Amino acid sequence: MPPFRCPLHSECVATILVTGGAGYIGSHTRYFLEKRGYSVLVVDNLSRGYKEAVPAEQLRVLDTRDGGRMEQLLRDERVDAVIHFAAYISVGESTQAPELYFENNASGSLSLFEAMLRAGVKRLVFSSTAAVYGIPQTVPITENEPYAPINPYGESKVMVEKMLEWLDRYREFRSIRLRYFNACGAEPEAGLGERHDPETHLIPLILRAIQTGEPVTFFGNDYPTPDGTCIRDYIHVSDLAEAHIHAVEHLLRGGQSEVFNVGTGTGHSVKEVMEAVERVTGKKVPHEIGPRREGDPPVLVADSQKLQAALGWRPARADLDRIVSDAWQFAQRAR
Ligand code: UFG
Question: Which residues, 6+ apart, have CB-to-CB distance to 11 below 8 Å?
């Protein structure tokens, strides 16, 4: 990344507000924004985030749906741009209570955008997902793949993406939508890593199996892939965080709205992830093979050429053993 020069101000640095900054990807992005020299503020209602993941002086415990207080904060702190992570992220939960996802993710985002418009803040980076594509027609997936979500979580993100498309057209509200593939890894030196409750993601579950001896269940080994297990594009959370910094700097420089996939372009099967964990930890992974999980496409791999060409971002930590090693260091500290 080029050396830091505030894209907006000559004598001070831009102020970036991070919603959901006490969560997994938000806390890493906050950390890298601060390292780069920005003035950073976090808004999080702590319903699922961890307050230890944010320096106390940067944290405002607040819900993005509280439009009045959000507007006031945006004005008082002279916020220049918002990076919006605050959302629920569990596919399974979204199928049990879709209304939760429409209320928190879609309606919560709309409240935030209304407050931003009232406060005159019109630059936003949005945390979107590969789940907007559902089961893709073409892999690697480009941004031209149509919206086809297969669960309410993905639908809630499509709803927000569509709001942003219209706000761009009619309200000069500029946004970058980043569609992440499988976020993983950690920044153990900073005390940051993945902690979901309940945990549903593959790498932390495999590491937990090693720590507890309780087997992890792999969902199916009869997929049309070389080893029969599903293939995903695992992207280090710190690479993802840096993609947000490229995106927000594009907006601060007056750049246009865009949508980008964020992945490494390389797929790894569940079995390959397990083997990487065994290499890194030197331990066998207790596991069993269960039935397929509903809604799991066999292969999801990103084509992220567009992001690389437009903003000069590169995944610097794409090596699977590196990803697993960072996650393992964090898991050992967190216990
Ligand atoms: N898996 C298992 N056992 C587990 C958990 C996962 O075998 O206990 C497998 C899954 O079947 C899948 C792979 O590991 O093949 C990765 O699963 P994750 O649950 O870690 O991640 P997903 O690919 O299901 O989900 C990710 C993001 C979601 C997003 C989705 C888009 O975490 O937020 O991609 O399709 F919605």
Answer: none
